[in-house]
Write a structure and sequence with these properties.
Layout (H helix, E strand, L loop, with lengths): L24 E8 L7 E9 L2 E7 H4 L8 E3 L4 E4 L1 E6 L13 H12 L4 H17 L2 E8 L4 H8 L2 E8 L7 H12 L17 E6 L7 H14 L4 E4 L3 H9 L2 H10 L13 H7 L8 E4 L5 H9 L3 E4 L1 H7 L6 H6 L4 E3 L12 H6 L8 H8 L1 H7 L17 E5 L17 E7 L2 E5 L2
Parallel strand pairs: 1-4, 1-5, 6-7, 7-8, 8-9, 10-11, 11-12, 12-13
Antiparallel strand pairs: 1-2, 2-3, 5-14, 14-15, 15-16
């Protein structure tokens, strides 16, 4: 197979393709955007045994397999599977109206307190199905019920599930953590490398947020994560009311704790911002992912960067609550590692990661950079980039999506962020998990 190994993605220098199994298939489209490599006009992927065996011109790869195993999407864009770095799949079945965040949390907790484990699982399965329909193949999911790992595995998704831990009474920190670790059972040993095929997601921990989690519990969780190699993620500086609660006490979040019967009596406002609060508590170093970070300053960005914390922005959720969105452009200039998440269908009904990225166009992000935020940046933040999640490369995971722009819109990276872009197929491990009707 000959050609030039340049921007057209051809295959010069390859003496032969690897030996293929009977499961090999070719997937072609008029534009392939691998991320981390030049675009390929009229390109294709050759997949085999759940991996990308080759990447190049469609005319060279399509003849490699029998006709029944050739999938040609024509006027479409083939991209790596999107990586949604922050989800709550188990809340997909919940529909709440926009409201101040404290009132929204009260409504959410009162509703879900009555849910059985089977209802959480059904809701998580609904969320996983919607995620695949949005072109997502890898998630960073937060679960309170512990049911979402089953939904993720059953759907053929990859990712990390962060098991939520919370409690404001520092005296009970060790007991709370012990109960959570005991509940993980077989997920106790962290598996940070993607398996050859989609399967049980890796297990991390998530101290919920500074307004619900004591410094003692944060430190205990991070120590447990360091000891086991688990990743840790937290919600941080999401709303002005969170900042007020930590600075002064009182306000809507104090009322929220009272209405929910939360044991917040021992909480004493530290008189500082959420980031400074965690920094003083020794709860930044070892934290892999901070979600939201809307109420943060340049000095705090520098502290997060030095601690190795990546930031997951959720523009749709900020819009839902009316929160000021983080200064994404400023964070980028400060050298923070950024990625994107959709949060939950309960606070972002669209569930579209491409729409999340489109919200950053006015902040000066170009289309190629936006695509990277949706894919490889998320995989890196979750520690899952090593096996090819978030990009298309030989030997990497055969996880990808196919997007179809509306008529009249030219095929390009920019077209992915058109409001009428349509996901027509999502594949993980070389198997179709979603196909538009």
């Amino acid at each position: 197979m000959k050609g030039s190994n340049g921007a057209n993605g051809s295959l010069e220098g390859r003496s032969s393709l690897p030996a293929l199994t009977g499961a090999a298939a070719v997937w072609a489209a008029d534009l392939v955007l691998p991320v981390g490599a030049p675009p390929i006009r009229r390109g294709a992927l050759l997949t085999d045994a759940g991996r990308v065996a080759a990447l190049g011109p469609a005319e060279e790869l399509l003849p490699c397999v029998p006709k029944p195993f050739r999938h040609d999407f024509g006027r479409a864009i083939l991209i790596p599977g999107l990586v949604d770095a922050h989800t709550h799949l188990e809340l997909a079945g919940l529909r709440l109206s926009p409201a101040p965040m404290a009132d929204w949390i009260v409504a959410l907790v009162r509703e879900t307190r009555a849910w059985s484990s089977s209802l959480f699982l059904a809701s998580a399965k609904m969320g996983a199905a919607g995620t695949l329909a949005a072109g997502v193949t890898c998630v960073g999911d937060v679960t309170a019920s512990g049911e979402s790992p089953t939904a993720i595995a059953d759907a053929g998704l990859r990712g990390v599930v962060f098991h939520e831990v919370l409690g404001l009474d520092g005296v009970q920190a060790e007991e709370i953590l012990a109960r959570k670790l005991a509940s993980l059972g077989g997920a106790h040993a962290y598996r940070g490398v993607l398996p050859g095929l989609p399967g049980q997601p890796a297990a991390g921990l998530s101290p919920h947020a500074p307004y619900t989690t004591s410094p003692e519990l944060y430190r205990a969780v991070l120590e447990a994560c360091r000891a086991s190699g688990r990743p840790a993620a937290t919600h941080l500086a999401e709303s002005p009311e969170e900042a007020r609660f930590l600075r002064e006490g009182g306000g809507d979040f104090a009322r929220m704790h009272s209405e929910l019967g939360s044991p917040a009596e021992r909480f004493h406002p530290p008189g500082c911002s959420p980031v400074k609060y965690l920094d003083r508590a020794g709860a930044l170093d070892g934290l892999r992912l901070a979600v939201h970070c809307n109420q943060t300053t340049p000095a705090e960005w520098e502290r997060l960067r030095r601690a190795g914390v990546r930031v997951c922005l959720c523009p749709g959720s900020a819009r839902f609550f009316g929160h000021p969105l983080a200064d994404a452009a400023g964070m980028r200039r400060a050298g923070l590692g950024l990625c994107l998440g959709t949060d939950s269908r309960a606070s972002n009904p669209s569930g579209s990661l491409l729409a999340e990225a489109a919200a950053l166009r006015n902040a000066g992000f170009g289309p190629e950079e936006l695509l990277r935020l949706c894919t490889l940046a998320g995989a890196e933040a979750l520690g899952l980039a090593g096996e090819g999640a978030g990009q298309l490369r030989e030997g990497g995971a055969a996880d990808f999506a196919v997007a179809e722009p509306p008529p009249g819109v030219a095929l390009s990276a920019e077209a992915l962020f058109h409001p009428e872009i349509r996901i027509v197929c999502t594949v993980t491990g070389g198997e179709v998990r979603f196909a538009a009707g």
